[in-house]
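Here is an idea for our session: we take a single protein and study its fold together. Start from the sequence, derive the backbone structure tokens from it, and show both lines together. Once you have written the record down, we can walk along the chain together:
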Amino acid sequence: MSGSGGGGYIPPQRNKFDCETSFLTTSVSSIDIAVLEKHKEGVLLDVIVDKKGALVLEDGDGEILGAILHSNTSDIIECMENGAVYEAEIKKINTPACTVKVYRK
């Protein structure tokens, strides 16, 4: 056995998402390309929890662009259950990929 200590691996602790001040920039998952083609960088989308409990992005026409899958997704959902409202700005489109910034409204 090499090395010393034998303490094992401790994964880095993820940062707790603050409902008031935190934001995240992330790639959108499960993108609907037809919806993406209707939008451009700078467009604002509503962040909602769908019927299945997933955090998704909805445009002004009620269409779902895609989902947010991030280590802080459950934190955002918890914040929303406590009354926080979030929106997402499309920061970069590189079809079929899309990056958004999610922040409190």
About this structure: The two ends are 53 Å apart (CA to CA). The longest helix spans residues 73-81. The chain has one domain: 24-104. The beta strands are 24-27, 44-49, 55-58, 64-67, 86-94, 97-104.
